[in-house]
Amino acid sequence: MxxxxxxAVRDQQVSALWLTPPAAKGCFVFAHGAGAxxxxxxxxxxxxxxxxxxxxxxxYQFPYMEKKSKRPDPPALCHDTVRAAxxxxxxxxxxVPLFAGGxxxxxxxxxxxxxxxxxxxxxGLIFVGFPLHPAGKPDATRGAHLRDVxxxxxxxxxxxxxxxxxDLLQPLVTGLGERATLRVFEHADHSFHVPAKSGRxxxxxxxxxxxxxxxxxx
Length: 218
What we know:
This protein is 33% helix and 24% strand. It is of the alpha/beta class. α1 crosses α6 (202-217) and α3 (75-92) crosses α4. The chain is globular, with a radius of gyration of 16 Å.
């Protein structure tokens, strides 16, 4: 059962959703993308799939999403939100290995927070579609801070992702050394959707992706 919670961030409260198996082997602090909140069907599917694989998730809102605004918060406020969510997860699952990251924007805000000052207790970062650049504007500048992340990182990317050209992402990940792992999913876009002509289904891609997360976290 998903439990509804609130998390204090500076002088405000944001909503959160906690989902855990009976005996979690890990916990993923899971931030949403820029345009859709923690209750989006993709976020729910990831959380439920990880629960079935023995991993708890704490989904949470950034303050702007809590207020139903379309304009993301300043990075510093996003970073504080990530830290507050990590602290909340540590209390919810004491002794359980912690991982943090998110879908697109949420993953980038998490990596920026980690790069500026280590997230307490977090063993690794998981990026579900890292947004390296805006669509149609290939550039690797947004990934420069990843050099300051000193814990393991898992990049889950579709090879049709318009926000992360593999020509730029692959050398970036390679340059991060052994602490970075890139897994590419054939025919998938930024939402991990695959066209019917590919002969694959979205659910198949989702299952493969979550199996990778389970293996990597262990």
